[in-house]
Each structure stands twice: as structure tokens, then as C-alpha cells.
């Protein structure tokens, strides 16, 4: 992850000091300040966003995952035609179809 710039550090210190003056504990003030700075950095595209990286909890059903998580799974599996898959139910169906087709290929190879 790219390091903070000088302006990020300045903003962090200003927010932290402001929160300390308002009576917040030091740990809470530091956490709030870093969250605010990191949120601004994400909006500016200077740091990765969690929604564009993860595939969700592997123990959750596919239907309970977000569309972003499903898109990331489809991308990892390198499913053909994934750019045309826009609806959640289509993404789930494509993932299941891909996984089932690859399971049957493994059985044939053994």
C-alpha cells in the first residue's frame, strides 16, 4: 500500500488533535483520524478498496455474497463471458456451472 503523503499526515494530525481536544481517548482519536484519511485516499483511488478485492467469507452461500464479491470470484475462476454477467443470479449460476464442470473433468482424469 502506498505510504501517506505529507498532506495525509497533516490531515491525520489535525483530526487527531481535534478529537483529543473534544475529550476522546487517544486510541479512539487515532483510529478515527486514520479511518477518515484512508477513506479520502480510497475515494481518490490512492489505496485499494476492500469491495474490489475480496471474494467474501468462503463459508457463506453464494446467494448471501455481494455482487462485487461474486464478480471477483468469477474473475479468479477466469469464467468466459464474465463481462456479460451483470445480475447476481447469473453470476451465481456461472460460478456453480464452472465448478461443476471442473469437478467432472477431474474425475475423468483420475
Short structural summary:
With about 110 residues, this protein is an all-alpha fold. Helices cover about 60% and strands about 0% of the residues. The chain has two domains: about 5-50; about 55-110, no CATH class.
Q: What are the key terms here?
A:
110 residues, mainly alpha, 2 domains, 4 helices, elongated
Number of helices: 4
Secondary structure class reads: mainly alpha
H and E order: HHHH
Low-confidence stretches: none
Mean pLDDT: 85
How many strands, what sense, and barrel or not for the largest sheet? none
Kindly give the count of domains: 2
Rg calculated over all Cα atoms: 21 Å
Distance between the termini: 43 Å
Measured by DSSP, the beta-strand proportion falls in: under 5%
Gross morphology is elongated
Quantity of strands, as a count: 0
State the share of residues found in helices, binned by percent. Answer: 55-70%
Per-chain topology:
Layout: H1 6-21, H2 26-43, H3 67-77, H4 88-109
What does this structure look like?
This protein is mainly α and 110 residues long. The protein folds into 2 domains: 6-48; 54-109, no CATH class. 61% of the residues lie in helices and 0% in strands. The protein contains 4 helices and no strands. It has helices at 6-21, 26-43, 67-77, 88-109. The chain is elongated. 10% of the residues are buried.
Amino acid at each position: 500500500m502506498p505510504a501517506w503523503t505529507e498532506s495525509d499526515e497533516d490531515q491525520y494530525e489535525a483530526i487527531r488533535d481535534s478529537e483529543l481536544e473534544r475529550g476522546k481517548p487517544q486510541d479512539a482519536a487515532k483510529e478515527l483520524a486514520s479511518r477518515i484519511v484512508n477513506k479520502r485516499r480510497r475515494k481518490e483511488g490512492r489505496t485499494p478498496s476492500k469491495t474490489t478485492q475480496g471474494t467474501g467469507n468462503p463459508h457463506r452461500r453464494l446467494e448471501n455474497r455481494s455482487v462485487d464479491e461474486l464478480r471477483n470470484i468469477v474473475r479468479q475462476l477466469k469464467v468466459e463471458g464474465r463481462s456479460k454477467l451483470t445480475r447476481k443470479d447469473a453470476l451465481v449460476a456461472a460460478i456453480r456451472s464452472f465448478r461443476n464442470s471442473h469437478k467432472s473433468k477431474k474425475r475423468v482424469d483420475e
